[in-house]
Amino acid sequence: MEMQEEKRVEHPHTLTLTGRERARLTGVNAVNCFNEEEVVLTTSAGEVALMGAGLHIEQLNLEDGQLDVTGEISAIEYSDIAPKRERRGLFARRKR
Q1: How many C-beta atoms surround the C-beta of residue 12 within 10 A?
Q2: CB of 48 closer than 8 Å to CB of 76
Q3: pLDDT tens string 35-64
Q4: Half-sphere exposure of 42 toward its Cβ, with a 13 Å CA cutoff?
Q5: Distance of CA 56 to CAs 27, 37, 39, Å?
Q6: Residue 25: CB partners within 8 Å, gap ≥ 6?
Q7: Degrees, nearest 5: CA angle 90-94-95
Q8: Single pTM value for the model
Q9: How many CA atoms lie within 13 A of 77 on its CB side?
Q10: Which CATH architecture has domain 14-79?
Q11: Alpha-carbon torsion 21, 59, 78, 15, what sign?
Q12: Residue 96 or residue 85, greater confidence
């Protein structure tokens, strides 16, 4: 009997900012860390950090890839966290 692998559905990433008080994100894969000053997420578009004061996660649904954050949002920062894979051919040297 074969075990079925659980497939994670990759949702497209969107960010909707309402004023500076509410951020709604889609394409969220994981919440890496959060506190009242910072919420760091992994999304289908890389890592996203929301910074501000009094931040609160109102809704989180990783199955649907959705997250709502409220508070005073002062900055949003994207970074690419996917490490570039090293291509290795048949005759590539091994590191010792």
Answers
A1: 10
A2: yes
A3: 999 999 999 999 999 999 999 999 999 999
A4: 8
A5: 19, 9, 9
A6: 13, 14, 15, 16, 41, 43, 48, 66, 67, 68, 69
A7: 155
A8: 0.74
A9: 10
A10: Sandwich (2.60)
A11: negative
A12: 96
Higher pLDDT, 9 or 84: 9
Amino acid letter, 67: L
Structure letter (DSSP) for residue 4: P
Query: Which of 30, 43, 73, 41 minimizes the C-alpha distance to 55?
Result: 73
Backbone angles phi, psi at 66, to 5 degrees: -115, 145
Which pLDDT does position 86 carry in this prediction?
Answer: 44
CA pair distance 55, 37, nearest whole angstrom: 6
Q: Residue 9: its pLDDT value, please?
A: 66
Which long-range contacts (C-beta less than 8 Å, at least 24 apart) are formed by 34-43? 36/71, 39/69, 41/67, 42/81, 43/13
Domain boundaries, the chain: 14-79
